[in-house]
From TrEMBL, chains A, B, C, D, E, F:
Stated role: Phosphorolytic 3'-5' exoribonuclease that plays an important role in tRNA 3'-end maturation. Removes nucleotide residues following the 3'-CCA terminus of tRNAs; can also add nucleotides to the ends of RNA molecules by using nucleoside diphosphates as substrates, but this may not be physiologically important. Probably plays a role in initiation of 16S rRNA degradation (leading to ribosome degradation) during starvation.
Keyword Acyltransferase: no
Gene: rph
Family from the record: Belongs to the RNase PH family.
Organism from which the protein derives: Bradymonas sediminis
Domain of life from the UniProt record: Bacteria
First-tier enzyme category under EC: transferase
Pfam families assigned: RNase_PH, RNase_PH_C
GO molecular function: 3'-5'-RNA exonuclease activity; tRNA binding; tRNA nucleotidyltransferase activity
Name of the featured protein: Ribonuclease PH
EC number: 2.7.7.56
Signal peptide stretch: none
Amino-acid positions noted as binding phosphate in the UniProt annotation, renumbered to this chain: R93, G131, T132, R133
A biological process from GO: rRNA 3'-end processing
PANTHER family in the record: EXOSOME COMPLEX COMPONENT, EXOSOME COMPLEX COMPONENT RRP41
Length: 256, 256, 256, 256, 256, 256
């Protein structure tokens, strides 16, 4: 496996280096909170909309709970060639991503602290260059945190329903090299593609490692997990910097 | 009818005054051209994607032609409360807008100068505060012009397939007042709602005037058309300013 | 522009002349009222069915209201070649027409006088030769009036929920000529296509003027509106003649 | 079982008596042939549209063949209460009727005499009062014969692709009585409901006898078949009378 | 017509001979009852699942009732070539079969003895070699009886809601021969195809006889009904043998 | 973490013990190969159907290739309460599983050795008690191998297009215990749920570990992977035993 510090990637990055990340809050005003996250050329607009009701199946839960769910979509202009709008039902890939984003966010939530509310995290990809699902999770977490902070602030809920921060990153194997944060160019030729969702204090929420018409060894698996951990730590810092510098948010980023 | 210069509107504008307009080109890089148009709080991302084929029904046209078509969508976070994603087929309003945008753009195109190409204009509303369909037309025209200019530049087509510029604006009647460019706050209480699409040199492409559980007189119709003409002239200037200051684009804005 | 009295059209009509119009009431007996309207070869069966409930979203309205809505469809044999049945959801054109018909009828209704009832106006095109949407509106108004008259008669509602009569007609520009009531033959080569919905006393409900890969001048717009006004007056007379000669219907056709 | 000549039915008919039947050809002009069939209050518009191609799966058949198929639909105003339009796919009952109509017509066709053509029989029910599927078959046969006669006349095909005539009728059992041609009033309380499709010379094409939450005996089955035979003979005469009195049609009604 | 005892069929059977039948109960444990029925190579898994509610439209029935309904599906591997999964809505054939199975079962049920319960009969075809719909009915009856017996046993309902047993078989005409229980090989070349559903004591529930691009005589109809009666009697015996030898089931098979 | 050898599970198994596994080949005859795999109460019928064409997008591949794809479905009777048939499009969970099964199988295939053929692996769950997706993969591999072996045998392809064997198993964490092969009872209360797909010689194809409203540590991840490895080895042996004892299959199970 390649030495992580070699700057040998097509875009000049080291194997363990993230693309430039920016997290801009309140890009739009209509939802409770919105975040435009940019990782290289990948740009995802994550909106957190609050609805004052919960899905039918959890209405009679005791004690009362809230719900956090996600939708994911790419606008047609996000890719070249143009991506065809999914108007006859979301495709398999889209549904899989939506389920992943929603499940990941709920893993760090205490839904009993959000009674009677549903928060929709809409992740609309404005430009896609690899890693849209992980960018969506990282951005959606910030939008969710901001929306929850505001609900607390205006007294709609009593306390923060989030236990800790969450971010996600991709890594992969190309030939002999283990790489962090793959853009489309690399992703399309990777032998192994892994997405890792972790909390800010280093526990796993989701690990999905897929051989792309290929298989991988135990050693490669461990190497990818290590790179992912490094990337998540950096994303975690970027998330914290993008949020207001207030205790209610700071607590989410405390290490165990 | 009210005097157009009274600054009596809820947001301090005069009756014949547009909301602040900005037109930002190349907000994303994936499509051939993209434009983020902002009119007050309404923000629409218009992407022009070029496909090297034409719809089946026009493949054997003699002489060969191209095609220009549009899709329109609102992201869920564009409104509060959240707008439900149209995944089981676009609704009636969406289809009506898409047909309007595509038809309007084609009215100023010479499709024989775009042989073998389809240009998709995707209008994705990032924030909706009234006038999204007219903002979509105004922004999509700029994206279309820019995409065509680039096709000419790199030799994919021989000359500009656009005859002249195009923009659109809404106007309406509330009680006795005839108003230009209605945000949601005004739109929701208007008795009459009119959308006007005009060329830069003052000809009509589309006039749609609708009584909202109400009717209107010939005089009101004429007053609305006059306001629309004034607004279109200003939008036309903003479009020209947003495009590169080159002859290929300047020609589109010449008056008759 | 051509002189409206020249009999120069392919079917021998003058520019400002309607096709032969017949309005036959109670063509079928199942619905509350039904109307078979014929304009030249265009034939539309308009049924008014009454339902004793209102859409969910208006159930709690204060004061109680009723609802008027429309559906539009062409039977496959209405055209040659055969028109494909819209079984996988109504297409964009169909939805646009349905919205237009429903909105137009509601513009002359006082829905508070129809509390608790929904009237469905189903416009099924049996033969299509241009102008189906305007024939649908003109016929549906008669079916609606008749259904409402009968509801009053049998005491289901206290008074007529319609303020005044309504009719619709198309006009267009072909080359230099401004023409009234275009059959398919003319419609397919028109540069401008306009649909006008007006009340019997001459106010606008809807004006939709579309350049077909073309644009039009202010003077042409005014000329089309004038022809439309003449046509609407004649249709209005035909509607009144088709309804029972009773005061409850006569009132709808009084001039302002 | 009751004596067939007792005039004891709610509408004054004898047990073995058809409702008044009228068959009006060329009710509309757009399709190759159209027939408006009326049986009591049931009215079905049957259009025969000719398409100059065949379904993909039979394109390479040797020898070349044609195809005959049917669609069935009720307009919403056909019933009270209003029938909901089937826009999200035809329902089970509709599909079953369409399959029955198409299969029945094909049973008397020689598809090799219709090479390269598809004939669509669209059966649109304008008013429904029981027996719509059998009226559809009886009417569609006339439209099909007329369309084929015209294809022969103008030389599109060499000879008549129909071997003999076809008609259909319902019968049923209510309590002890075996009845012919049931309107809705009787149909809704029948214990057994049978639809019979027969050729003009008395052979079966389709027999469908259904116990409605009930069962029936061998004797009842035979009694129903006898009534059906009588009804079919009368319908056959009405079909022949409605068609042009020319040898090409007369041949279809010859007895074996 | 051939003599029923000639062993001249491609698989060595006599004209009036069934394929080998096996009925295995409780092939799976999850539903209230399940039956794997095998007729030659045709294998259908029939599950009876009980739900403690009834469809909305019958909730307020007086006296309270239950419901029995069926669904039918073929797994893709049931045929060669592979059968395409019906994921965009069940096709016409599927719906027709489901309606037939449900209607047939209800014809022998007394739904007032099943108050508040719905029994779903799911007929999943694991292998298809002709006669799947009749095998589904024969198997589903056994699953239904077993499920009802168990509901009575554990006191969920007071008495057996089934009046008598039910089975189904196909027969047909090939050339001059009238045959019982057609596998695919014969079915695909039959001129007439008949499905008969009868009670164990010899009354008809459903008779569906279809000329396949052909017609049939009265004599052929009677011959098919006779064969069917013989087959049903044998299936009835197999059903009784497959059920527990207890009075509650034995009563269903008593002759009139 | 618990000692793997404690027999403390609700069904008496040790933490590292599989449920009883049976793999029955040729349960049905219609497809090229079929396998009924049983793991405890979970039963999945896996059919391999061969089609002599490839998807459109790979038709012009150079060199020519084949395709392997999967579909997954549960019959309604597979669960109690009854599972609702997915007739309006497969749901998110179903699509995710289908993508997983297809991708996993392709990871051990050499598609260039299957030129011009598509193999469909249909995994129909007859009874579901946890672990259906992993049972589907394990069973589908056997069906795929058998189908490919037969294609080689009859000369349709030149050599085996599979590189090595493949199996899958679930594991999870409940409280402090790390467990192998979770039935529904355990799965529904697991904090972490992991599915592992591995080759017979111990390389990873897919690792998917999900915190269920929970997170997990690096140590727990390693413990789960170890259990999975043990389970896969046992499944691999069962697969080999179920296949014919011939060299063409034996080669797939050789250790690296």
């Amino acid at each position: 496996m390649g030495t992580p510090t070699d700057k040998t990637r097509f875009d000049g990055r080291a194997a363990d280096e993230l693309r430039p990340v920016t997290i801009e809050t309140d890009f739009t005003e209509a939802p409770e909170a919105s975040v435009l996250i940019t990782m290289g050329k990948t740009r995802v607009l994550c909106s957190a909309s609050v609805e004052d009701s919960v899905p039918r199946w959890m209405r009679d839960a005791e004690p009362a709970k809230g719900w956090v769910t996600a939708e994911y979509s790419m606008i047609p202009g996000a890719t070249a060639p143009r991506f065809r709008r999914e108007r006859r039902g979301a495709g398999g890939r889209t549904r899989e991503i939506e389920r992943l984003v929603g499940r990941s966010l709920r893993a760090v939530c205490d839904l009993e602290k959000l009674p009677g509310h549903t928060i929709w995290l809409d992740c609309d990809v404005l430009q896609a260059d690899g890693g849209t699902r992980t960018a969506a999770i990282t951005g959606a977490f910030v939008a969710l945190a901001l929306a929850c902070g505001r609900l607390v602030e205006r007294g709609a809920i009593a306390e923060m329903p989030i236990r800790q921060s969450l971010a996600a990153i991709s890594c992969g194997v190309i030939g002999e090299q283990v790489l962090l944060d793959l853009p489309y160019e690399e992703d399309s030729k990777a032998d192994v593609d892994m997405n890792v969702v972790m909390t800010g204090d280093g526990r796993f929420v989701e690990v999905q490692g897929t051989g792309e018409e290929s298989t991988y060894s135990h050693a490669e698996l461990l190497a990818m997990l290590e790179l992912a951990g490094k990337g998540i730590a950096e994303l975690s810092a970027a998330q914290q910097a993008a949020l207001p510098q207030e205790p209610i948010y700071a607590k989410l980023f405390k290490k165990a």
